[in-house]
Specification:
The protein is built from ten helices and ten strands. The protein is of the alpha/beta class. α7 runs parallel beside α8 and α8 runs antiparallel to α9. The relative contact order is 0.13.
């Protein structure tokens, strides 16, 4: 059974070599490695080409910058493997991670996704915490564990027939498209299980999610799409008032962020970001609060 590994890359020159090494050195070798260069302005593309020269399992997709949503939808066009795994451009896997995940599918046709053990590491490569959720869940139970709080994470090996459904999701290119994608994919899963393979998630203190930046507003906008998803699958009544209160609290946080950016005259702040606040505001049912 072949595995497609997708790596979205944007200005990844500091990390991509080590990330690729952790994939290339996997004990499971039947891999198709798709690297999407999303209009990087540094030497990412040149690094990818040098590594590909020595490993024909690697495919490079070079495209104009469009964000994670456009990158993943482009990569999906090239998936031909039985299973698909998405990894961040600065993350790593334990050497047997993919093999352990693939083994979990053997003899269990009801399994559609396999979670890995999540290990959070900092800039010094020190372990911050570990999340080892050893539960078999239905797809809807897994989804339930992501609403308002990530009790079940999104680092999975998926059956490709499930993963390719992300092409049907639209978020207007929000920064955290993959978070909505995971929830959407869980709705199509029969069973979600776990393995002992380790996913090392690098918490980069210099990333957009750790500094004050207009794109952080996307982390609040995603709530609008989660609510729509729950309504579409007829599961919103389970959360209703609780989720509306959650959205309102998050909306206040988004306003505070916007005002701080405005006070500091952030060069990238514009009407587009104000429209994101309007979108959140209009999506809240205030009668439930």
């Amino acid at each position: 059974m072949s595995v497609c590994v997708i790596i979205p890359c944007y200005n990844s020159e500091k990390y991509i070599k080590e990330t690729l090494i952790s994939i290339q050195e996997q004990s499971y070798t039947d891999l198709h490695i798709i690297c999407i260069n999303d209009g990087s302005k540094d030497s990412t593309l040149e690094i990818l080409k040098k590594i590909k020269f020595k490993d024909d399992r690697i495919q490079i997709i070079d495209k104009q910058n469009g964000g994670i949503e456009s990158s993943l939808k482009e990569a999906v066009k090239y998936i031909k493997s039985d299973y698909t795994f998405l990894i961040g451009h600065d993350d790593k896997l334990s050497k047997n991670a993919i093999e352990n995940a693939v083994d979990k599918f053997n003899g269990r046709n009801e399994i559609d996704a396999v979670r890995m053990k999540l290990v959070l590491v900092n800039d010094k490569d020190e372990i911050i915490s570990e999340i080892n959720d050893q539960r078999d869940l239905s797809g809807l139970e897994a989804l339930d564990n992501t609403i308002m709080e990530w009790k079940t994470h999104n680092f999975c090996l998926w059956k490709s027939k499930i993963f390719i459904k992300i092409k049907d999701i639209t978020t207007n290119h929000t920064m955290n498209f993959d978070e909505l994608a995971t929830r959407y994919l869980y709705t199509y899963c029969n069973k979600v299980t776990y393995c002992t393979g380790e996913y090392y998630y690098f918490q980069n203190s210099n990333s957009v999610t750790h500094v004050i930046h207009p794109r952080l507003l996307d982390t609040f906008v995603i709530d609008v799409f989660i609510k729509k998803l729950l309504i579409d699958i007829d599961k919103y009544t389970k959360y209703n008032k609780e989720f509306e209160i959650y959205m309102f609290r998050r909306f206040k946080e988004a306003i505070s962020l916007y005002l701080e950016l405005k006070e500091n005259n952030h060069s990238e702040l514009n009407k587009h970001h104000l429209n994101k606040l309007r979108l959140i505001y209009k999506s809240i049912n205030y009668r439930e609060i």
